[in-house]
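Late entry, written up from scratch paper. The run itself happened at the end of the previous shift, but nothing got recorded in the book at the time, so transcribing now.
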Amino acid sequence: MKKAALLLVVSLCLAACHCERRTTGIPCRKAAQQAQKCQADCLKCPCMKTVAEEAARTAVKEYTEAQKAEQERLAAEQARQNAAAQQEKDFSTMANVRRHKTGKVVVNYKNPIRFAWDSDTILRVSNRQLTQTANILKKYPNHHITVVGYTDSTGDPLYNKDLSERRAKAVADALIRKGVPEQNVSYKGMGATNFVATNKTSKGRAANRRVELELSAK
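Output as recorded:
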């Protein structure tokens, strides 16, 4: 840092040397004729020493702040990775978990949340699964959870989108009732998109009628 500050001072001196020698009062004007001598004289000049010291202090401060910012960034990234890995482990028994490069974790239940036919009413058989989900999510108060609803391709696309959104809202409301902070939860309906199976079979359509969770650090 000091070396950088020294070079800065010298370049300033050579470009337009106009400081005054406090001891003699003679302007330091020999730079144009004798660059080497001007360099030596300017470095001896008290005003140049002050400038060099200030430049060195500024450079050190900026370098220290940059190092601190980088360390904080790396620590935050490591914390996100650790949380994502733990979420994968927490949900592994009940869901397939995908982690995006962005850090977002997508939870797709192995046993889908069950709803009444053509309805957003959650069946009692899924109550235990939602309780387990809420207990896991409460461990991550600094994460946002988006409940995403999907349907199969049967029926009107607009109706399917509305149904998927109502089902996502039903799950979001259930998680909130079970203790997940309301400000951490949102929902959206995607209708008949992002298929995970074929819509040509009843089994495939059942797999596509699903609710997923997307977790991301705030």
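The two ends are 37 Å apart (CA to CA).
(Scratch paper discarded after transcription.)
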